[in-house]
User: What shape does this take?
Amino acid sequence: MNYKIITSTFLCLAIIGSFGIYKVFANQNKEVNMDNKKVLVAYYSHSGNTKAVAEKIQNLTGGDIFEITPKTAYPKDYNAVVEQARKEKSDNVLPELADNGNVKDYDIIFLGTPVWWYTMAGPVRTFLKENDFTGKVIAPFCTHGGGGESSTYIDVQKLAPNAKILNGYTSYENSAKDNDIKVWINGLKF
Ligand SMILES: Cc1cc2nc3c(=O)[nH]c(=O)nc-3n(C[C@H](O)[C@H](O)[C@H](O)COP(=O)(O)O)c2cc1C
Assistant: This one.
């Protein structure tokens, strides 16, 4: 009887132990460890730089990807888009989106934007306003043309006051590197 109890206890401990060791090794083999969290990568991009970063993040995390798309596309012409964005910012306009998206099924939202006039682009403002980020974790990222992130991440927190905003990843134009993104994600404290 005692022998049976000892054997089954030993077997149980061995199974639990092996599972623990398996988990440690499984996590070590992944490039980034998302701890089984449900991940969404949502981004807006006008000329492709932020899109490229979003796709790298999606590849690394295996999350779902959502392109934030304004109902009416911005002009391709640089001066025209700069002027429209300037006016939208000063008039506090929230440009309508083709689809507001949905963050409710996700734990962590990687949120990407180009820096427009020292902050996030208008469509990203709308995305934050139109979704409920209560209890969500946002890992913001942005690309810029030389001025850095400016107020982008501070403004993300202002528009999603009930979310936890993690350190952002900032890169110049199309200079983002896979390895830097990996290091950033692995340094985040979810
Ligand atoms: C309307 C507009 C405003 C911009 N404002 C800034 C800015 O305030 N600071 C900055 O460093 N770059 C600024 N840029 C440059 C973009 O942030 C940069 O080119 C970015 O990588 C573009 O990302 P995208 O290719 O994903 O659209 C601006 C570009 C545009 C079109």
About this structure: The longest helix spans residues 2-29.
